[in-house]
Amino acid sequence: MVRYVARRVGAIDAEDIAAEVFVRAYSRRAACRGEHGSVLPWLLGVANHVIADHRRVENRRLETLERLAETMPTSVEHEQAGLAPELLRALRRVPAADRDALLLVVWGELSYDEAATALDVPIGTVHQPRVDMRLHMLFWHLADRWGRVRADGTIVPLRLSHSVLADLVAARRPTVSSALFALAERELVRPLDEGWLLSGEPPAELLEVQAIDVEALKPQKPDRSDRA
Questions:
Q1: What is the DSSP letter of 190?
Q2: Tally of CB atoms within 10 A around 217
Q3: Sheet strands side by side (includes 195-198)
Q4: What global pTM score does this model have?
Q5: In the chain, what are the domains?
Q6: Which one of 61, 72, 86, 169 is least enclosed by Cβ atoms within 10 Å?
């Protein structure tokens, strides 16, 4: 929990805010349901409420990380975040409620069910793997035609804005920004000046779709059972 708070607000303020989380959690311990076999989702939910009370601290940290990413990419503080300036800008634009849901999954390492429990909202509010998957598949579709393989991955030399990507995958732009952030955290897709860098292999879902398409295009063998 302390590590999650530190990533949200920075190491300097993390200790005081984490202590406040534990004090508030203790005062509300009767409300702890302990779902999913752990109190961590509930505790992180309390942490989100405390962080919301210190939203200026979090916004100031994101602004600082963005400046460091642009001017001092090798700084210790920026290395702890490990995020490109474009992703930090996107994260700052995400509405606070969406940011909480996203970071519970990405930095809090909760499942979507656990994040929904932490926020006390329906799972549909935090469940966005379909957008992640659609974006990942889209990039690899584009890479199949325009991609260039290089030492650090496959580059797709197309400057696609978040708005354009939102149109391509039929999603809202803030949702696409959140999904791109999640993909970058998993080191699958990263924005560059010249386009997008893909790491690893194409997603299994894409390979399955391609396999189905190939099978559908194969000529069918004549059925000889009807021949006398």
A1: E
A2: 7
A3: 148-150, 153-156, 195-198, 189-192
A4: 0.47
A5: 2-124 (no CATH), 129-206 (1.10.10.10)
A6: 72
